[in-house]
């Protein structure tokens, strides 16, 4: 009898959903809430009131960073670490209307990030305060809304207490904002947790936990439906259950499913499924919610390093800060995609989110593009690094911030390790033991599928209390690459990763001829023989006193199987921390790619080592003084040797010996053509030529893409170069380029990658640096093609057109 009842129930449910599916509408409405905000710098507590006059406030679209719009100031409170840009206080305000018919719904607002000390008000009522500038959060607006009438939301942002960071933070509502409308019965915020207890290409198991919120005054019975869709949106598994929930409460429900013939996620083929959760009341759809899903399994081993899906895989990683160069902290998915594309093309397969939670867009793109992620929560605990940093908020907020961070990111298949801290001061005293154990316990209470790590600087066991806690699953070490060889003995049985490495210094396109590896400075506070123009040679021979050159570090990591991999400091230059120089230097020298997104020469060393691309890159440029002795380097792969020619005359063949990563020749300069030819088994693999450039003839404009969407968000980056009549780059050109944009776009940023450039990122002009700069154009919403006109003194203007669609 029971058996027959179950069969009848399943048939009824199946009929119910096959009939109702055609009449379904989307129950959950997620609305872009970025547009038509008013903003003003300063403190305006009365702005929470509905009768406040904001007619003189600026109207703008979020995300927004007011710091990047300011002028560089040697006396700025943010100091050198944050790039000498302004901070302060600001207010945002928006008027909006909610239909009267929505009074029975739950309406919430979601902020992906506000830097910092944000307080949100709705119709004069404070919804809450959030000090952490990197954390995502949300509030339920429902009890305080005027349905069918105007509502006022106001956000106070207080970034005035400085210094509060060791890098550029930006100021304001710098990430996206959404309005989410659902029925009273719905999936809670970050309310799903999907894991894959068993993974194979034949069959994989999925375990889904769904937290259901019931904001109704009465208990509810509902049907919970889980569908797993493949990359083509074809359903590959489903589960249906009848559930109950009490009034004004939340409960977690569980579904277990099997997926046959599973496609695995990896860094080369990041295949993504999605889990669609639907809630029905009496056959009416009341909520639908999507969760990313990737099937993969990985392992850290104390002897063999890292493997993904059973395949030994070295982690080729870079550390990234959250700023997007000339856009400042403004988060834009197109800027992030460009950044990650450059790293992918270089051969990187991993990103460390330094040293704080990054954006939702960054996480989504790492899933889609195939990056292994080290997700990092904190740069400080209770002990400060600068006067007004997170240590002031630690006691009151660290638990909630860490929990929210884990809940938001734990469904991303790209995330393979949780970092609870970077170079934490408690490493050096016994308080580090208890805090490490507490944080690891919080992480494990929410996710046991990934190891907990921390970026450590101390490899003397007696001095490292974070290590002594015994709470880390994976040991991350920063720098001191020369000590790695001793780690298998010193940390016997431990799994080890270079969580941060290198900190080499370069300026794109600037060359001081090599005279051996040097540290600038040799120790903290020491004087050093730097350059008067605040540049550093692009030959990989200058490093910070705590770091290594790129080649020194990679040779070490490459040769030691037990090291799971490395995260280079950094993939890109970033605003702030311009070691080794003082003002006017205002951005870092550490990047493999400069702040404008233009690769430095060492990019091609990594590409030759980390990627499958066939590489031949020679440096420097070929515009020097007659008979000047020039050192020519070549990075290459997939070849036995490289032969160098000057004006057709062979200067000899060279091949890498032992663990060499480049080859070099000393060449007396004469104008003409420098040509490199790589060969394998006597056959030509690649040829590369560099020509002596003549007089300036043209402004060359190259857009990264031919069309953009007219959605007010899409970006196109245009690389601007000065060339001679034959199209050769003028490698030392510093001319001023003026820009004029018309049609469906607007100029939102300019940059040339020079670390001591004090011109505004928001100007309508930019000086070339070593022949190049960039212009960033954003859609303005008009259905018109975009024209960028570039002019310079004594040269004919150049125009490029970008289509909108």
TrEMBL record:
Q: Which stretches make up the Glycoside hydrolase family 2 immunoglobulin-like beta-sandwich domain?
A: 193-296
Q: Where is the Glycoside hydrolase family 2 catalytic domain?
A: 304-455
* Annotated InterPro entries: Beta-gal/glucu_dom_sf (IPR036156), DUF4982 (IPR032311), Galactose-bd-like_sf (IPR008979), GH (IPR017853), GH2_Domain-Containing (IPR051913), Glyco_hydro2_dom5 (IPR040605), Glyco_hydro_2 (IPR006101), Glyco_hydro_2_AS (IPR023232)
- Give the record's keywords alphabetically: Glycosidase, Hydrolase
* Top-rank taxon: Bacteria
Question: Record keywords: Hydrolase included?
Answer: yes
The Glycoside hydrolase family domain sits at 699-800
Show where the Glycosyl hydrolases family 2 sugar binding domain sits.
Answer: 31-181
Q: Where is the DUF4982 domain?
A: 628-685
Family to which the UniProt record says this protein belongs? Belongs to the glycosyl hydrolase 2 family.
What name does this protein carry? Sugar-binding domain-containing protein
- What species is given as this protein's source? Flavobacterium quisquiliarum
């Amino acid at each position: 009898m029971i058996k027959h009842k179950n069969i009848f129930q399943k048939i009824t449910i199946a009929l119910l959903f096959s009939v109702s599916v055609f009449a379904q509408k989307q129950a959950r409405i997620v609305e872009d809430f970025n547009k038509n905000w008013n903003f003003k710098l300063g403190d305006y507590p009365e702005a929470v009131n509905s009768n406040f006059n904001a007619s003189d406030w600026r109207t703008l679209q979020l995300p927004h960073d007011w710091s990047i719009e300011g002028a560089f100031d040697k006396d700025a409170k943010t100091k050198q670490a944050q790039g000498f840009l302004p901070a302060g206080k600001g207010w945002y305000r928006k008027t909006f209307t909610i239909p009267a018919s929505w009074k029975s719904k739950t309406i919430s607002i979601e902020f992906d990030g506000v830097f910092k000390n944000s307080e949100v008000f709705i119709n004069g009522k404070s919804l809450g305060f959030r000090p952490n500038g990197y954390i995502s959060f949300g509030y339920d607006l429902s009890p305080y809304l005027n349905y069918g009438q105007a509502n006022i939301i106001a956000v106070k942002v207080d970034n005035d207490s400085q210094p509060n960071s060791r890098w550029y933070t930006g100021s304001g509502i710098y990430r996206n904002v959404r309005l989410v409308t659902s029925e009273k019965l719905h999936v809670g915020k970050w309310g799903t947790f999907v894991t894959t207890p068993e993974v194979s290409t034949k069959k994989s198991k999925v375990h889904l936990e769904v937290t259901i919120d019931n904001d109704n005054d009465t208990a509810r019975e509902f049907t919970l439906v889980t569908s797993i869709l493949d990359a083509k949106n074809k359903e590959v598994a489903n589960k249906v259950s009848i559930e109950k929930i009490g009034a004004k409460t939340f409960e977690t429900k569980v579904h277990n499913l099997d997926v046959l013939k599973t496609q695995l996620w990896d860094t080369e083929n990041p295949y993504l499924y999605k889990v669609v959760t639907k809630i029905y009341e009496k056959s009416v759809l009341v909520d639908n919610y999507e969760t990313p899903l990737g099937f993969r399994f990985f392992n850290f081993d104390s002897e063999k390093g890292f493997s993904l899906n059973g395949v030994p895989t070295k982690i080729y990683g870079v550390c990234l800060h959250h700023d997007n160069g000339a856009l400042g902290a403004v988060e834009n998915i197109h800027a992030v995609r460009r950044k990650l594309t450059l790293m992918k093309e270089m051969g990187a397969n991993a990103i460390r989110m330094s040293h704080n939670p990054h954006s939702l867009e960054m996480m989504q793109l790492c899933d889609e593009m195939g990056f292994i992620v080290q997700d990092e929560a904190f740069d400080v605990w209770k002990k400060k690094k600068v006067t007004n940093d997170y240590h002031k908020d630690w006691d009151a907020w660290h638990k909630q911030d860490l929990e929210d961070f884990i809940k938001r990111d734990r469904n991303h298949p790209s995330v393979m390790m949780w970092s609870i801290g970077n170079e934490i001061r408690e490493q050096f005293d016994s308080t580090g033991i208890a805090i490490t154990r507490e944080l690891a316990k919080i992480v494990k209470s929410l996710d046991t599928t990934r190891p907990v790590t921390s970026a450590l600087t101390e490899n003397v066991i007696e001095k490292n209390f974070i290590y002594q806690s015994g709470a880390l699953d994976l040991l991350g070490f920063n720098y001191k690459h020369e000590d790695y060889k001793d780690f298998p003995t010193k940390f016997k049985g431990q799994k080890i990763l270079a969580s941060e490495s290198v900190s080499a210094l370069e300026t794109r396109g600037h060359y001081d001829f090599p005279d051996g590896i040097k540290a600038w400075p040799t120790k903290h506070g020491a004087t050093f023989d730097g350059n008067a123009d605040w540049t550093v040679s692009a030959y990989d021979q200058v490093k910070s006193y705590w770091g290594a050159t790129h080649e020194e570090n990679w040779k070490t990591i490459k040769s030691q199987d037990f090291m799971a991999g490395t995260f280079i400091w950094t993939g890109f230059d970033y605003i702030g921390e311009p070691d080794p120089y003082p003002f006017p230097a205002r951005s870092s020298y550490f990047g493999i790619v400069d702040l404008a997104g233009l690769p430095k020469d060492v990019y091609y060393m990594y590409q030759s080592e980390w990627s499958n691309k066939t590489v031949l890159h020679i440096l420097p440029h070929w515009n020097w003084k007659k008979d000047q002795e020039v050192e020519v380097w070549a990075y290459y792969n997939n070849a036995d040797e490289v032969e160098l020619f000057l004006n057709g005359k062979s200067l000899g063949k060279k091949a890498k010996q032992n663990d060499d990563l480049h080859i070099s020749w000393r060449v007396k300069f004469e104008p003409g053509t420098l040509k490199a030819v790589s060969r394998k088994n006597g056959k030509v693999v690649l040829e590369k030529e560099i020509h002596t450039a003549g007089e300036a003839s043209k402004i060359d404009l190259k857009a990264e893409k031919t069309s953009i969407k007219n959605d007010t968000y899409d970006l196109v980056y245009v690389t601007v170069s000065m060339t001679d009549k034959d199209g050769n780059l003028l490698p030392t050109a510093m001319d001023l380029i003026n820009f004029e944009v018309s049609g469906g776009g607007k100029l939102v940023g300019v940059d040339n990658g020079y670390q001591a450039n004090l011109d505004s990122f928001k100007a309508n002009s930019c000086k070339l640096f070593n022949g190049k700069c960039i212009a960033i154009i954003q859609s303005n919403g008009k259905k018109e093609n975009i024209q960028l006109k570039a002019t310079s003194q004594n040269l004919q203007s150049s125009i490029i057109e970008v289509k909108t669609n």
